[in-house]
Write a structure and sequence with these properties.
The chain contains 13 helices and nine strands. It is an alpha+beta fold and 376 residues long. Helix 5 packs across helix 6. It is globular and about 55 Å long.
Length: 376
């Protein structure tokens, strides 16, 4: 990693980032954009532009809290790795050792490693996902339904992005610790890191206080299968409070930046308290497919995963950007978000919007390129 004292934002190139984000919002290409970028020691660039709601004129709040969707996944996975450090389980332990009912329909051999690397064969979303959400199903019900599903392929024999694998992982965390996954992440990460506006699922007091924190959450643009105004969409109280381990994190750019800095510091807080071992960070952010003999060669070489973290896919349309180091890792989110961390350059960046991107994620990638070019 570069010495952070040798890395700085070029003022003119950083202004180009601000101008690009502003242009996207003024042209109604994006409803809003929030950006944070920095090093392990400092956050040097924060931007909030655009509107709090897509069809209203009120400006995006400087303290806006975003539903970051699947950026949640690697943070949940780091919670599981913390339990591995503590001896609660190992990557080769079977899921049925913690959730016995999971073993039905040819899933008996599924290991925790498969959940963290998207190699379990579980679906991304359940066939009745919309019906479950319309019925305001609990997290327990989502896990029950996942236990009933048959895998698309035997565990460890393929790669299929799977939100339901992270749902199961969240349930294992809950059963092992006796806490909800949300409470575990709060106690072990959010609170010690000082992430005061981060929560896996909004608590009641975000809605019911004299100054409701939920008012700070910008309204997401709904996908075509979601119904405007329905009580089960991303913008509903039900979904914001459910706290799904595969996509329910609510956080400000500043708080998410704290987590990125924690990763760059190899597991320590700003005051030097160690929350995760350097060995754990290294394992989470290296190509796990190299030791999995049955993974197809294309995924092993071109679309690798760490443990919860997506590694850099430079030849893929939804890459983190064109200018980043080969060891860059991060994650995307369906609400129009991306976080990347480049340990060789010693920098991170996050771009949060409220508009789901197409498969190329072109606006996020263009902004990422401009941010990477602003560092020198």
């Amino acid at each position: 990693m570069r010495e952070t004292t040798a890395v700085r934002l070029h003022p003119g190139r950083w202004q180009a980032v601000v101008d690009l984000a502003t242009k996207y919002c003024e042209s109604n290409t994006l409803p809003c954009v929030a950006i944070a970028t920095g090093t392990a020691d400092s956050v040097d660039g924060i931007v909030h532009v655009g509107r709090q709601k897509p069809n209203e004129s009120a400006a995006l709040r400087d303290d806006a809290i975003f539903l970051v969707a699947s950026i949640t996944k690697p943070i949940v996975c780091m919670g599981a790795l913390l339990l591995i450090e503590r001896g609660a389980f190992t990557l080769v332990d079977r899921v049925v050792d913690f959730i016995p009912e999971f073993g039905r329909n040819r899933k008996y051999g599924t290991e925790l490693r498969h959940l963290l690397t998207h190699t379990s064969g579980l679906p991304d979303m359940l066939p009745d996902n919309v019906e479950l959400r319309k019925a305001h199903a609990s997290l327990t019900r989502f896990v029950e339904r996942t236990c009933e599903e048959a895998p698309v392929f035997p565990p460890g024999r393929g790669v299929l992005y799977q939100s339901m694998g992270i749902a199961v992982l969240g349930e294992i965390i809950a059963r092992v610790t006796g806490k909800t996954c949300a409470q575990f992440l709060h106690d072990e990460f959010f609170q010690p890191l000082g992430m005061q506006d981060a929560a896996l699922g909004a608590p009641d007091d975000w809605f019911d206080s004299a100054t409701p924190k939920i008012d700070r959450v910008p309204e997401a643009v709904l996908l075509h299968e979601q119904e405007s105004g329905a009580d089960w969409t991303w913008n509903s109280r039900y979904w914001r409070q459910l706290g799904v381990p595969w996509g329910g994190l609510l956080t400000t750019p500043a708080d998410l930046a704290m987590y990125a800095q924690f990763m760059l510091r190899m597991g320590t807080t700003v005051d030097g308290r160690r929350l995760l071992a350097p060995a754990t960070i290294s394992a989470a952010t290296r190509n796990q497919f190299e030791c999995m003999r049955d993974i197809p060669e294309f995924e092993r070489r071109c679309q690798p995963w760490g443990l919860g973290w997506r590694l850099d896919w430079p030849a893929h349309s939804s890459s983190f950007g064109d200018l980043l180091g080969s060891r860059t890792y991060g994650h995307w989110g369906a609400t129009g978000t991306v976080l990347w961390i480049d340990p060789d350059a010693g920098i991170f960046a996050l771009v949060l919007t409220t508009l789901p991107q197409d498969l190329s994620g072109k606006y996020l990638t263009r902004l990422s390129n401009a941010i990477a070019a602003a560092w020198e």
